[in-house]
Design the sequence.
């Protein structure tokens, strides 16, 4: 089944997020279930989603979905900007709407970095670490 596209290809928030996500070693982009997804062997971030039971709600249409470390996830859930998204939320993923809150792109990069480290192969994490050196 082909899903309709659920994003605007010219969205400036998507463009900024895409630039950050594709800066990680081996990162690629594809459209899955109508939304942009960034991955290496596994996906580490996506653009857009919704909260379970809120299919008509567009509050997460322009959100970053990411997978934080379990301890950090609990901390982030104490911040009202972060919510548990439908489908991937039960697997530890969180979302932050990038159009409701003024995004700090430095913070977004930190969230992407953590998610990348949680999902990428060790070889790519090592390559990322070597860039920082």
Sequence:
């Amino acid at each position: 089944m082909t899903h309709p596209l659920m994003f605007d290809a010219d969205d400036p928030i998507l463009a900024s997020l895409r630039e950050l996500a594709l800066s990680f070693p081996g990162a690629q982009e594809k459209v899955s279930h109508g939304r942009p997804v960034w991955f290496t062997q596994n996906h580490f971030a996506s653009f857009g989603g919704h909260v379970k039971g809120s299919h008509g709600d567009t509050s997460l249409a322009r959100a970053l979905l990411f997978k934080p470390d379990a301890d950090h996830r609990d901390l982030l859930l104490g911040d009202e900007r972060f919510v548990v998204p439908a489908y991937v939320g039960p697997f530890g993923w969180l979302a932050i709407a990038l159009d409701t809150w003024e995004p700090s792109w430095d913070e977004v990069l930190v969230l992407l970095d953590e998610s990348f480290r949680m999902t990428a192969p060790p070889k790519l994490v090592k390559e990322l670490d070597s860039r920082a050196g």
